[in-house]
Predict the structure.
Amino acid sequence: MAEQSFQDLKLDSWILKQCTAIGVKHPTSIQASCIPKILAGKDCIGAAKTGSGKTLAFALPIIQKLSEDPYGIFGLILTPTRELAFQIADQFAVIGKPINLKICVIVGGMDMVEQGIQLSKRPHIVVATPGRLADHLESCNTFSLSKIQFLVLDEADRLLSGQFDDHIKTIFKVLPRQRQNLFFSATITDALEKLKEVVEVTKTEVFMYEAPSQTDAATVEELDQQYVLCPKDVKDAYLVQAIREFRGTDAKGNIIIFTNTCRTCHVLSMTLNEVGFENVALHGMIPQIQRLTALARFKSNTVRILIATDVASRGLDIPTVALVINHTLPKLPKEYIHRVGRTARAGRCGKAISLVTPYDITLLQKIEEHIHVSLKEMQVDDAEVGKIFAQVSLTKSESYMRLDESDFFEKSLINKRKKWILEGLDPDEEEAKLLKSKLKNKKRKKQKTDECTVK
């Protein structure tokens, strides 16, 4: 497979030129396996490790088929995150430039009226997150998806995990039964296995590709995976020291730090900026324009540290990422795979460091069991951690205070109320429950503080 060329896959010469222009000369295993089957009209389910070229595996054949009979909305690509939607659109734009390919990105956080105008102009390809596309289908009739030839679910396991079920159903109701269905993901799950039933595939033959190494280690060999064992209350000081030690060996490599919540992400970003590590944050509470700006600054190496929630864990291809740090271990092993997959892509080397507290040992063991790799313990200079602990802790406390004074929590509450309404819950009742819970937590913390003071 490795010695095959794109020409062997029966791709048009103009597409071959575009691939060469972006430095893609030989197909990866998933591309060599899936592209001929898609060109032959088969539905396809594909799973391969992050960085294996899944996007081009479906983009190239779709663009070739479109060039033979260009019209209206030809293909619909659904993806779970906004950033991934824009990245996919960029790849389609580069390959489809010679045929003046028209692409429309439909994601939340952007002007719906402007998006509606773009959809009414019947672009060739629509790349969307399910929620925003469902909103358009329910609120206007200026466009139709009834004649699409291709439906793509990128990161299919995430899209079918339950979070997007209502939106997916809304979208599927307006799609034609006769279409090609293409489903791709980095992780094979039960949801991915049952895709044929979920979308009611009408064809008798479905091609399924699973990378041979998928059954062994779920991460690439070029990835150096380590963990740092640290006390919970000193984790941020260990994070700073880990970055300092990495910078001692790699002064310019880009770093992505993953956290578990928007609040933690924002505070950590503020803290690291104050202690001398310039960074940008990426999470769901940041307006979309600012998210795109932050990502652009990181991709262009203007800023070399990105602090993010799992909105950045799927599909983002940034070649300069040399280190991924898990500030908080994810609850699910497959999310760990997606996070560390942001580095060591396309044969490059990379490093992943996870900060592990005594409370995280079980999570670490589950991850190691899932990926069939034992992480190596990384020794961090404890003496240096001791020197910076007070400064980091004080800076973090000040960051929390500044966050309290901003409208961050007000925006968070607005988002929560929207979510409750969509779930059919009474937002006033849910807000009262949330306030009651917060008051209980404050009282509990005050009691602990008083007990410590007495002791």
Observations:
- The longest strand covers residues 223-229.
- The mean pLDDT is 87.
- The chain has three domains: 6-215, 223-405, 409-442.
